[in-house]
Amino acid sequence: MTKLIFNHLQDAEHNFAMLDLIPDTHAWIKDTAGQFVFGNRLFFERFGFASMQGLLGKSDYDIAPSTLAEKYTTDDAFVLGGGVVTDRLELILNEAGSGDWFLTSKWPIHDLHDNVLGSFGISRHLNRTEGTTIPYQELRAPVDYICSNFDTDISVESLASACNISVSALERRFRKHLDKTPRQYINEVRLNHARQVLLETDKPIGTIAVETGFADHSHFARAFRRHFGLTPSAARHGSNTDKKTGLPAK
Questions:
Q1: Of 2, 5, 69, 112, which is most buried, counting CB atoms within 10 Å of its CB?
Q2: Alpha-carbon distance 187 to 220, whole Å?
Q3: pTM of the full predicted structure?
Q4: What is the model's pLDDT at position 11?
Q5: Rounded Cα–Cα distance for residues 223 and 207 (Å)
Q6: 91 alpha carbon, distance to own chain's centre
Q7: Distance between CA atoms of residues 26 and 99, nearest Å
Q8: For the chain, where are the alpha helices, taking DSSP H only?
Q9: Per residue of the chain (250 residues), what is the pLDDT tens digit?
Q10: CA 52 – CA 41 distance, rounded (Å)
């Protein structure tokens, strides 16, 4: 996606209203304080609101469990700092507490003077064909295992064994549904967790590297820079964020 530039967030809302026409897609806009200023129909109805007015002014902490809200707001801090989140697999709950897998991407919204006005997010339901749950079923076991064990030495072979499938079937599922290998996804989970710890704690970078499953500091630093475009130290010291909310400090 090209750079998003508008005079005001309201202009962005009008331009993205067409997203109501796209099936299985959630879209939203937040301001720099993390409050929703727009959500398409599928998004606000997912959380039990009869109209978008019920969503306006709410934050992630108002509509999601705190553990998920923390992850969402950490992503927001990264995006408001100029970063981009692309096709991240994540679980999104509804008002009843059940969840579905989505691929989520987020971009910063700038004004004409390059100031960041807020963030735009879009999540595409993995079950694109109505009534079909194959992607969820095929990915749930390996993704859950990775999220619970990313700090250990996970090999593709051990992951396949834990999920009772062959290595070739595991590789095929990740390629088909996420367009990446299991190893790439493991590294992304580790790096996203490491970035969150960097923003929210004062732990030494070497300690974070080991605790998130990397062999050593240098391996971690190289992987972090390839993925995020900056070093772990720059990410920590260059992000003026509130460690409680993960949003830019005021």
A1: 69
A2: 10
A3: 0.55
A4: 66
A5: 15
A6: 9
A7: 14
A8: 9-16, 41-46, 60-63, 66-80, 134-149, 156-162, 167-178, 182-200, 205-211, 217-228, 232-238
A9: 556 777 677 666 667 767 766 777 889 999 999 999 999 888 998 888 998 899 999 999 998 877 778 888 888 998 998 888 887 777 776 666 556 778 888 999 998 888 999 999 998 876 544 334 455 567 778 888 888 888 898 999 999 999 999 999 999 988 887 778 999 989 988 887 888 788 778 899 999 999 999 988 999 999 999 888 889 998 888 654 443 334 334 3
A10: 7
Q: Which two tokens stand for residue 41?
A: 């129909």
* Contact assessment for residue 230 and residue 238, using Cβ atoms and an 8 Å cutoff: yes
**41: alpha, beta or left, given left = phi > 0 and alpha = psi -120 to 50?**
alpha
- Burial zone of 148 (CB within 10 Å; 0-12 exposed, 13-18 middle, 19+ buried): exposed
Grouping H, G, I as helix, E, B as strand and the rest as coil, residue 37 is: strand
C-alpha radius of gyration, the chain, whole number = 18
DSSP string over 62-122: HHS-HHHHHHHHHHHHHHHTT--EEEEEEEEE-TTS-EEEEEEEEEEEE-TTS-EEEEEEE
The full set of domains in the chain, from first to last, is 4-125 (3.30.450.20), 134-238 (1.10.10.60)
